[in-house]
Design a protein that fits this description.
CATH class of one domain: Mainly Beta
Structural class: alpha+beta
Largest sheet: 9 strands, antiparallel
CATH architecture of one domain: Distorted Sandwich
Strand order of the largest sheet: 1-7-8-9-10-18-15-14-13
Shape: globular
Helix content: 25-40%
Number of strands: 48
Number of helices: 16
Radius of gyration: 29 Å
Oligomer: single chain
Length: about 800
């Protein structure tokens, strides 16, 4: 199989031709290419953006020091302050504001004063859990000078029992200090944190400690110092680990950076290569892929799974795994780490998901209330995994006393008995805490009870689980399959017959008093994802709400229309100018998939700025101007971010490009489809997509869609807005062309690749069927067929001799 390393010469040429100056000529980005100055980072109103992390530890800096450390299973409030003073006067040497630059695994802080400056590189380690602070101090004066460097801290070490949505840092158990030479350890019953500075004097005063280092720097000279910070489960281990780091701190820091760089290379060897004339699109796509890597923890036996993909966690909040958020990242996880995804899909149901919305990271136990989206979110994640890998054995894996398939059946049926009391086919999904947590809803009316989404998704869940049963348990499940198909149709009728509000052009929410009210939530657009659920005329009316007076903000799509009474500038998640990080990209994919290319392109254009102003993608991202509330946001056009420091759904940007722009649709039968969403006048869009052991190359141009594979297959449709689906086996190759718009064109299939794939020596050895009718092999190298209908089916097989 051709790997991305084999594409390097071609990629270099293409990157050069299209001017992709945002990236190096390597097929993966290096650390420096992610570099982002804190001054260019959106203001974060609830948490920290400049987090420094590896797979093992995460730190929130404060100036040159580390303020808080997430080191599962421990959380540390360190409160470290670094300072440098003139030894003769005692005055602080640094007077300028710190300049901070972030790159993966490292924070770089620079500051200066009169004739002196320093740069502190805060490097997160993989092993042990901790940091090396590399301090470079320059004396720019004409005389030798003496300085005093101090590190003061007052640590508190805790061992959280639940890593839920809120950060786990606490100050209720200060750790007492012990010193030994230039080493300090603070410990309590939970764990320990050690600090060391070569040549320093360590002093402690109960809960506080100080490392003090006096030194002299010659005129116009530079001094290098290193300070180690290590978190461990006990005092002895912390001491030993800190000593080991201090034996070669430069090596520890450089090895950590090399490993981060290696992780990027390894990661991006799995990421499908995108060639696009707009470098912003490529940058957005690749940064989205990195967001999944930023959600990964590798801690051996410390967590329930290794690796562990948390919903957030870099600021210690939401280190648990939510089914909801996994659904947003499912395409990225299935593509980039399918083994880890399988493990998570086996672990999640045992929460059980019928009662909880997540599993915690230490034991995999259920955490939080039931969430109305659990059934859809989990089923969608399973479906993505099955389509991508073909690993049907997942359905027979056992979790919490049941198989995954049995859990899928139970989730599909959830609420039928007690949540549909009037038998209308719509479930009462509960209150805010069970759906979208709209802060102003109260007891209603609002997006509560019988809501369009996730009720609409239930039709897809029924049909999908019925399909699984038909695949693996047909004889034993005939009655259940039939019932699920009927229930799916009941839900579709109920959605369109009860909840559709023709005057509003919107699906409303049915309250417990029977009234139906329109709540203009971004979630209603999710219904466009499912073919056949929303009639075309209604889809057009729903999409018409994507305008500047309702959903469209200058920086993205709002989570709620401005005209809704629940719209709230104080809501940083689901009811205001901000939106959850996964929703903008997923809306792009849904709009492309539903045939609204213009609206999809516009929605994508509004979020391409993300990599310019966010190192890691947080929970909520502003789409409007917040500068009146947060004046610091004026520099960014009023944009801010909010919520947790990072979120796994930041990886949904991959879906915007793969499922959206390229229409990538893996089939449960092993087929693969690509669609044409090319904007006229653009240069070619190209995607190199590995799928089940083979590499596919899809190219979109003004002339149509081309598709090739490493097996030599070569297909093309010259009709705009078309899709090509291919199922390529050893004995049969099936091609289906379809089109969304009226028009005409051709489908061309290179016969050489077909003959090669089927092991046939000449075209006469091919059996060709067109829409089920036998065709004579052409005399030339291509099969060319006029394409004017909605679909065209071509099947190739080897002629069998009688």
């Amino acid at each position: 199989m051709l790997t991305q390393k084999g594409w390097k010469p071609v990629l270099v040429v293409l990157l050069t031709v299209f001017g992709f100056s945002a990236f190096s000529s390597e097929p993966y980005p290096h650390l420096a290419e992610f570099r982002l100055a804190a001054g260019d980072t959106l203001p974060e109103v609830e948490s920290a953006q400049q987090v420094i992390f590896t797979d093992a530890v995460s730190g929130i800096p404060d100036g040159e020091g580390i303020h808080r450390i997430t080191a599962p299973p421990l959380a540390v409030v360190l409160g470290q302050r670094l300072d440098i003073r003139d030894a003769s006067t005692g005055e602080s040497c640094l007077t300028s504001e710190p300049v901070v630059v972030w790159e993966p695994g490292t924070g770089i802080v620079s500051r200066s004063g009169k004739d002196v400056s320093w740069v502190v590189r805060q490097v997160a380690l993989y092993e042990p859990q901790g940091f090396v602070l590399s301090i470079e101090i320059q004396n720019s004066s004409a005389t030798s000078r003496q300085f005093v460097l101090t590190s003061t801290q007052r640590p508190s070490v805790t061992r959280p029992q639940n890593w839920n949505w809120d950060p786990t840092f606490r100050r209720d158990s200060p750790a007492l200090a012990a010193t030994e030479g230039s080493f300090i350890v603070h410990d309590d019953a939970a764990g320990a944190v050690a600090l060391a500075l070569a040549g320093a004097t360590a002093t402690a005063d109960g809960e506080s400690s100080t490392l003090t280092r006096r030194f002299e720097i010659a005129a116009n000279a530079v001094e290098h110092l290193h300070l180690a910070i290590v978190v461990a489960e006990n005092r002895a281990t912390a001491f030993a680990s800190a000593r080991r780091v201090m034996e070669a701190p430069e090596r520890a820091a450089s090895e950590s950076r090399a490993r981060m760089d290696h992780n990027l290379e390894e990661w991006f060897e799995r990421v499908p290569v995108l060639i696009h004339p707009d470098p912003r699109v490529v940058r957005f796509y690749r940064r989205a892929a990195a967001q999944l890597l930023w959600a990964r923890w590798r801690l051996g036996k410390s967590l329930a799974l290794d690796p562990w993909y948390s919903t957030s966690g870099r600021d210690s909040g939401a280190l648990n795994a939510y089914a909801w958020d996994l659904q947003y990242a499912a395409q990225a996880v299935a593509l980039l780490d399918p083994d880890a995804m399988r493990a998570l899909l086996v672990a999640l149901p045992a929460a059980p998901l019928t009662q909880h919305f997540s599993i915690e990271p230490l034991k995999g136990a259920g955490l939080g209330p039931f969430y109305a989206y659990n059934s859809y979110a989990y089923t969608a994640a399973v479906d993505e995994y099955l389509r991508r890998t073909g690993d049907w054995s997942l359905l027979s894996a056992r979790s919490g006393g049941k198989t995954v398939l049995e859990w899928l059946v139970e989730l599909a049926q959830w609420g039928e008995r007690d949540r549909d009391t009037d038998g209308n086919g719509l479930l009462d999904c509960g209150k805010d805490k069970n759906i979208l947590e709209l802060k102003k809803t109260g007891t209603g009316p609002g997006y509560i009870n019988e809501v369009p989404s996730p009720n609409g998704e239930r039709a897809w869940v029924y049909d999908t689980v019925a399909g699984y049963l038909q695949q693996v348990s047909l004889v034993a499940s005939t009655e259940l399959i039939s019932r699920f198909r009927e229930r799916a149709e009941t839900v579709r009728r109920a959605l369109n017959g009860i909840l559709w509000m023709d005057e509003a052009g919107w699906y409303g929410s049915r309250q417990r008093d029977g009234s139906i009210v329109p709540v203009y939530s971004i979630q209603v657009f999710d219904l466009l994802r499912f073919p056949g659920l929303v009639p075309r005329d209604r889809a057009q009316r729903i999409v018409s709400h994507l305008n500047k007076d309702e959903f469209l903000g200058p920086w993205g799509v709002r989570s709620m229309s401005i005209k809704d009474r629940l719209f709230d500038y104080n809501d940083h998640d689901w009811a205001g100018p901000m939106s959850y990080a996964g929703d903008g990209p997923q809306l792009v994919a849904d709009l492309y998939g539903a045939g609204f290319d213009r609206e999809a392109s516009d929605a994508l254009e509004r979020i391409l700025w993300w990599p310019e102003h966010m190192a890691v993608y947080p929970q909520g991202i502003a789409n409007d101007d917040y500068s009146l509330r947060y004046p610091v946001a004026r520099k960014f056009g009023g944009r801010i971010s909010a919520g947790r420091s990072n979120v796994i759904a930041g990886a949904t940007g991959i879906e915007a490009i793969l499922r959206g722009l390229f229409g990538v649709q893996p089939g449960l039968d092993g087929s693969i489809a690509f669609s044409d969403h090319h904007k006229p006048g653009d240069g070619p869009y190209e995607l190199r997509y590995p799928f089940r052991g083979h590499l596919w190359t899809a190219t979109q141009t003004d002339n149509g869609l081309k598709l090739g594979s490493d097996r030599g297959l070569d297909l093309e449709t010259t009709r705009a807005k078309s899709t090509l689906r291919v199922a390529a086996g050893d004995k049969r190759i099936a091609v289906q062309a379809s089109a969304r718009d009226a028009g005409s064109g051709q489908v061309r299939v290179g016969l050489k690749g077909v003959m090669q794939a089927l092991g046939v020596g000449s075209a006469k050895g091919l059996s060709i069927q067109l829409d089920g009718k036998q065709q004579q092999p052409p005399s030339g190298p291509q099969l060319v067929i006029a394409f004017s209908g909605s679909t065209l089916d071509i099947e190739f097989s080897a002629v069998t001799k009688r």
